[in-house]
Task: inverse folding
């Protein structure tokens, strides 16, 4: 039909913004309630969450910047930093490979006991870090199952780097799988099926279709996994033996310095870990703001 | 309870959601607010409820100004589009909620609350389902629970936001009839919002057609359909053909038409648009005022035959709709040239966009006078 | 979809190797002790008081977190204020900050001459090196669990429910207590359970501030380490087994709660 074009007949523009809930007096509280609740929450957050962070840096610099750097470049501290990096460089890729494979198996196929498998993968989250260390002591310790065989072949797990790697791998086990499973579940298998129907093989589908879809979620998982791997204390403490320069990770080094009343050095090393935490939080928030819709809906660790 | 709405303005930021609304509603009336999305109909309903606050204006319930009254004290029964039932409560608890939250000295006894809620559930034909939870009900049943919950507070006015929007066609029809019966039985003043003109015309005593924050027309269902006050109303209430034409010497001509098709009812001479529905076009007998069209195509869909044709003189493409057994149908063959007459139509001055500047403020309950003014342009 | 057998096989293999077999070791070892053996260990005053402290302090910390976590989640979802986005990111700080760092920082703040402790001490409140310190550290590490569980549920709560309650005459307080809180209750309980589970097993942030006095401020995980250092593997295993069973029970409860949460906030009604 040849209608005269009359712009006034068309729909009006959409609302320029969703009316803010605050503007709607019906479903919000009186102003004094809002202000006091907000103030209470902010005071709690600042006083309770941020103060410890500030304290770390203040204490670290208490004896001046020179002492600060001295504490960090000192041999045992450097050895601890190297060990922490080494351990997370092994543990994170191990869990990365596992996370991707497990998520693929769980989300792209249907099978019985799937929920049980997911629960089992989550298990290390609910195990005390100390118990996580203990389980390896029971296996590899002098009285453990594998203990006698180990000492016979002069292969050391406990009180050595392999034990630290194992314990770290255990406590960070679920991180990446946990991030990927909900994400890949939400994405479904349509893309992959389309690629298969076009003649791609399994590898091609994974590299060209699945991986690009999950890259931000994967990065997110790696970030959290790494933060925990570098910062793990309880589990590592049980299996490490605290040998300075050899089996001391950064958190353990902090403990030793602290127990020797060398507070500023302890806080100096701790400040490095705190910076790692801040970096992790920063990158994590960046990912959430930039790629929030490509990350899993459940975000909890 | 009769309701008067006086000069309500309401803006969201720079967007005027309501731009001067006046409306009088008699006690016990069933009123439809009809309009496209963004026309302000839901905002008007929420403003009456007290869920939104107008920038200026008055809303009088039985002569009492309620604008300053918070929603809690307005006693309006509001039924939300998605029902907003409390999922953690049984249906009985949902219906009883409005009574239970009353201040202690006004609250009926526990026994009375339960009895009243059960009675209301009987009224909406859900007796026996008291212990169910909302998630265990069908959409139509939830709708009725929401209604019973709203009725429990003995509202001064019942407000329904797109009451049938979330239901499928069959349930919608049944529920519509049922709601009409319920209204006739209970006699509550009822206002409902809809974008479906069929729903509005079938259910309401009077229809309020809204567009861009203003009332275009208020009238009985026949009135708005037969005598639309503005091109917008005409267009919104059904399929529309627009034929360019002009008024000359007290006669209305289709553009290029040799003879007039009607006399004017006081139109100024000049170009006009003739609005005619596809079902109001017929083949003209000899001697009857008509205009010629070339038939382009004809297609039957079920009981209806739709025909597309082009006016010979003006080139306007128009649609004709006839029952498939109508005696005009055989003549409407593609390629044929036939004379058409208009059995019913409206005339609007051309070049006057339907804007808020051009339209005078609607004077409620004065449709005839208003129509005259609107037509005069 | 290709690769099912291979990927599932690897998943199960790796899961068994790293998690299941080592964990099973604890139970095999504990079974070797027999019920009497375990009872003997657990009923010793030192172990009993350590378990009681770990679970008791964790319950108190989780309760504090439920209250403040709800407050923080509410304020962040419902109100607008300057710096909200930045502060929202810092809620996860206890997740990201290594526990040992949190532990020494909290100790520095709350010890008698610390920034905060110096004001509390004159009031007769000793935090560091007392059970109060244990609760404090557990509260610190558990807060994000409650906030991050409640926040999304609160965000998705339909505003219409509140409007409906208001139109039916409910005051704001009635709407909050009778409509909003029941809606988010499952999420709140889930957050509570997660926060509790984390606190029970917590070690790093607690031991620095706890003072670790036997029978007073010694937590169960620390006792495991002490027993290991004394080469009392049986004792350590017994305590660990008790803690494992209790945390698996918690895990079960959390899963049930999450199922409940889904059914309650899931389908629209």
Result:
């Amino acid at each position: 039909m040849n209608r005269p074009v009359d712009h006034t007949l068309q729909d009006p523009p959409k609302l320029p913004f969703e009316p803010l809930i605050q503007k709607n007096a019906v479903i919000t509280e009186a102003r004094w309630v809002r202000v006091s609740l907000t103030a209470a929450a902010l005071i709690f957050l600042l006083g309770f969450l941020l103060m410890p962070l500030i304290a770390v840096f203040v204490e670290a610099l208490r004896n001046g910047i020179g002492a600060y750097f001295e504490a960090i470049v000192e041999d045992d501290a450097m050895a601890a930093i190297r060990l922490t990096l080494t351990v997370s460089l092994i543990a994170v890729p191990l869990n990365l490979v596992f996370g991707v494979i497990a998520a693929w198996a769980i989300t792209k196929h249907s099978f019985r006991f799937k929920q049980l498998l997911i629960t089992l993968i989550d298990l290390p989250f609910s195990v005390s870090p100390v118990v996580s260390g203990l389980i390896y002591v029971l296996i590899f310790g002098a009285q453990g199952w594998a203990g006698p065989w180990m000492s016979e072949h002069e292969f050391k797990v406990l009180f050595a780097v392999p034990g630290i790697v194992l314990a770290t791998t255990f406590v960070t086990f679920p991180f990446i799988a946990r991030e990927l499973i909900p994400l890949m579940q939400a994405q479904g298998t349509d893309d992959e099926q389309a690629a298969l129907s076009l003649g791609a093989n399994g590898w091609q589908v994974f590299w060209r279709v699945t991986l690009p879809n999950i890259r931000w979620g994967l990065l997110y998982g790696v970030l959290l996994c790494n933060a925990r791997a570098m910062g793990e204390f309880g589990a590592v403490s049980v299996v490490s033996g605290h040998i300075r320069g050899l089996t001391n990770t950064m958190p353990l080094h902090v403990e030793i310095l602290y127990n020797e009343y060398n507070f500023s050095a302890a806080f100096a090393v701790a400040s490095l870990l705190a910076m790692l935490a801040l970096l992790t939080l920063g990158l994590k928030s960046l990912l959430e703001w930039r790629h929030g819709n490509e990350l899993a809906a459940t975000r909890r660790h | 309870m009769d309701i008067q709405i006086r000069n309500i303005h309401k803006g969201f930021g720079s967007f005027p959601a309501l731009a001067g609304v006046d409306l009088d509603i008699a006690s016990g009336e069933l009123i439809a607010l009809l309009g496209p999305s963004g026309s302000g109909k839901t905002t008007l309903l929420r403003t009456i409820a007290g869920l939104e606050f107008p920038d200026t204006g008055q809303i009088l319930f039985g002569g009492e100004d309620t604008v300053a009254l918070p929603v809690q004290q307005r006693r309006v029964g509001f039924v939300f589009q998605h029902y907003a039932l409390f999922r953690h409560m049984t249906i009985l608890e949902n219906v009883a909620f409005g009574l239970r939250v009353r201040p202690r000295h006004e609250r009926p006894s526990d026994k009375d609350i339960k009895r009243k809620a059960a009675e209301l559930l009987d009224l909406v034909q859900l007796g026996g389902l008291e212990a169910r939870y909302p998630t265990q009900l069908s959409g139509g049943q939830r709708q009725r629970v929401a209604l019973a919950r709203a009725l429990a507070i003995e509202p001064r006015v019942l407000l329904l936001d797109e009451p049938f929007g979330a239901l499928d066609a069959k349930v919608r029809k049944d529920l519509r009839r049922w709601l009409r019966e319920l209204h006739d039985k209970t006699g509550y003043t009822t206002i409902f919002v809809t974008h479906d003109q069929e729903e509005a015309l079938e259910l309401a005593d009077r229809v309020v057609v809204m567009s861009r924050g203003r009332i275009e027309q208020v009238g009985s269902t026949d009135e708005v359909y037969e005598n639309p006050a503005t091109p917008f109303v005409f267009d919104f209430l059904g399929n529309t053909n627009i034929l360019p034409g002009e008024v000359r010497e007290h006669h209305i001509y289709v553009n290029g038409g040799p003879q007039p098709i009607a006399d004017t009812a006081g139109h100024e001479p000049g170009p006009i648009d003739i609005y005619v529905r596809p079902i109001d076009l017929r083949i003209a007998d000899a001697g009857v005022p008509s205009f010629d069209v070339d038939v382009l195509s004809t297609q039957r869909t079920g009981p209806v035959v739709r025909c597309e044709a082009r006016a010979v003189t003006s080139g306007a493409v128009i649609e004709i709709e006839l029952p498939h057994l109508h005696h005009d149908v055989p003549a409407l063959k593609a390629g044929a040239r036939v004379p058409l007459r208009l059995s019913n139509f409206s005339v609007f001055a051309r070049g006057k966009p339907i804007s808020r500047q051009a339209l005078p403020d609607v004077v409620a309950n004065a449709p005839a006078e208003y129509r005259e003014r609107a037509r005069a342009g | 979809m290709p690769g099912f057998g291979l990927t599932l096989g690897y998943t199960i293999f790796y899961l068994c190797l790293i998690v299941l077999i080592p964990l099973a070791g604890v139970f095999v070892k504990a079974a070797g002790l027999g019920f009497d053996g375990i009872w003997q260990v657990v009923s010793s005053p030192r172990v009993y008081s350590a378990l009681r402290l770990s679970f008791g302090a964790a319950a108190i910390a989780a309760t504090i977190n439920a209250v403040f976590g709800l407050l923080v989640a509410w304020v962040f979802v419902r109100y607008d204020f300057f710096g909200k986005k930045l502060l929202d990111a810092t809620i996860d700080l206890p997740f990201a900050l290594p526990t040992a760092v949190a532990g020494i920082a909290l100790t520095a703040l709350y010890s008698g001459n610390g920034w905060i402790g110096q004001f509390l001490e004159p009031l007769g409140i000793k935090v560091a090196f007392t059970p109060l310190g244990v609760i404090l550290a557990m509260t610190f590490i558990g807060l994000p669990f409650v906030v991050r569980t409640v926040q999304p549920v609160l965000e998705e709560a339909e505003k219409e429910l509140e409007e409906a309650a208001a139109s039916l005459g409910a005051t704001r307080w009635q709407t909050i207590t009778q409509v909003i809180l029941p809606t988010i209750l499952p999420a709140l309980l889930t957050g509570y359970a997660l926060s509790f589970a984390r606190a029970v097993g917590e070690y790093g942030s607690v031991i620095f501030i706890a003072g670790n006095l036997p029978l007073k401020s010694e937590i169960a995980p620390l006792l495991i380490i002490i027993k290991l250092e004394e080469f009392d593997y049986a004792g350590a295993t017994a305590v660990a087994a008790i803690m494992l069973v209790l945390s698996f029970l918690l895990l079960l409860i959390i899963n049930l709660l999450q199922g409940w949460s889904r059914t309650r906030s899931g389908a629209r009604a």
Q: What stands out?
A: Chain A touches chain C through 105 residues (CB under 8 Å).
